[in-house]
Design a protein that fits this description.
The protein has 349 residues and is of the alpha/beta class. The protein has two domains: 3-42 and 234-344, Conserved Hypothetical Protein Ylqf, Chain: A, domain 2 (Orthogonal Bundle); 50-222, Rossmann fold (3-Layer(aba) Sandwich). Helix content is 38%, strand content 12%. Strands 3-2-1-4-6-5 form a six-stranded mixed beta sheet, sandwiched between helices. The longest helix is centred in the middle third of the chain and has 16 residues, at 138-153. It binds guanosine-5'-triphosphate and magnesium ion. Residues 101-102, 104-105, 131-133, 171, 173-179, 197-199, 201-204, 225-226 line the site of guanosine-5'-triphosphate.
Length: 349
């Protein structure tokens, strides 16, 4: 590849509020980066425990008590990883609003394109972006008026005499469904949070009793467990889900998730990870980067020597280093990132 093309690639690299590291890439570097992510075993991405199957059935029985469904998804993966089964199992009868949450962590340059893509390619009529860490944000303020408008446009069938509006919040795990309920309740009713929230997937395990989020008009919501599709269609989609914390870290492995993060960064020419690892040149070797990081940060694990069960030795703790790298992404310390930017950047409406 001629050097002028390299310069162009570099100038198109992801920019954000953080200091952007733009190393001088040589042709050698670009050739070294993997073009495909190989997952050791696709079954690692399968997570469909009993509470999801049971939850889905219960949600179907609750449909008759609601007027609208809010599907919450992660704004860092706007076009990847939504549960395709929702379309058949839950949507179709009731009006649907898609909320893309965690906008504080996503690259806002892709907000408009995400919305256009979802409307034009997926036929979604209403897309709202929220940040549950900021109750004064526009999305949080706009959501309930939007729900009421949407409901008024549709036939409420058995519920038309009921002055109370019912809404079901659905989505895959850990996208902020319960946080959204707390934010709306706090923003509109000035009440404390009542839906349990946590940084791990699978915090809400049962369909909850209804929670009031507005007085006039009265709006009640049902919080539900995050439900994944039993079969993730594509390894890279599954790994994006894993990176955003919607699957269980331990079943995929922190090393594999960190390796995917490095693969994604290199593929998309986002080199903010150089600062994290304290290095000057990009690399595609996650084992080496994690080991160097562990040594630099003095993160060791004491393990038994293979040759002698009585002898213990200190080894760089790659898992803990991998966890720190993943958390840097999840907390926005690598800068705002849209993991679907590779598809969205080509999208023209
Ligand atoms: N940065 C950021 N974090 C958020 C936002 N919304 C939720 N979170 C965090 O995301 C994590 C998951 O939030 P929950 O509300 O428990 O997600 P959930 O979809 O109800 O998860 P399950 O009940 O496990 O399906 C928590 O650590 C929240 O603090 C947001 O807008 N921005
Ligand atoms: Mg929850």
């Amino acid at each position: 590849m001629p050097e002028s093309s390299l310069a162009l690639l570099q100038s198109n690299s992801t920019r954000n509020d953080l200091k952007v590291n733009m190393p001088t890439l040589s042709t050698k570097h670009l050739q070294e980066f993997r073009r495909e992510f190989r997952l050791p075993d696709r079954n690692l991405l399968r997570w469909f425990p009993g509470h999801m199957a049971g939850g889905l059935k219960k949600m179907q029985t609750k449909l008759k008590s609601v007027d609208c469904i809010i599907e919450v998804h992660d704004a860092r993966i706007p076009i990847s990883g939504r549960n395709p089964n929702f379309k058949y199992d839950l949507l179709g009868v009731k009006p649907h609003i898609l909320v893309l949450n965690k906008t504080d962590l996503t690259d806002t340059n892709f907000i408009n394109k995400s919305s256009m893509y979802l409307k034009e390619q997926e036929g979604i009529s209403e897309v709202i972006f929220t940040n549950c860490k900021d109750q004064t944000s526009k999305g949080i303020k706009d959501l309930v008026p939007s729900v009421i408008n949407t409901i008024k446009k549709f036939d409420r069938f058995n519920r038309c005499a009921n002055p109370e509006f019912g809404v079901m919040i659905i989505g895959i795990p850990n996208v902020g469904k319960s946080s959204l309920i707390n934010s709306l309740r706090s923003s509109i009713l000035k009440k404390n949070k009542c839906a349990p929230v946590g940084a791990k997937p699978g915090i809400t395990k049962l369909v909850q009793n209804r929670i009031k989020i507005s007085n006039s008009p009265p709006v009640f919501v049902y919080d539900t467990p995050g439900i994944l599709t039993p079969n993730v269609p594509h390894a890279e989609v599954g790994m994006k889900l894993a990176l955003c914390g919607t699957l269980q870290d331990h079943s995929i492995g922190l090393f594999t998730i960190a390796d995917f993060l490095l693969y994604w960064c290199n593929k998309n020419k986002n080199f903010n990870y150089l600062d994290f690892f304290g290095i000057n040149e990009p690399s595609d070797n996650i084992g080496l980067l994690l080991a160097q990081y562990a040594i630099k940060k003095n993160i060791y694990i004491r393990i038994r020597e293979l040759t002698s069960s009585n002898v213990k030795v200190n080894k760089p703790d790659l898992n803990l280093s991998a966890n720190r790298f993943i958390e840097a992404f999840r907390n926005g310390k690598l800068g705002p990132i849209n993991l679907d930017s590779d598809t969205l950047k080509w999208y023209k409406s």
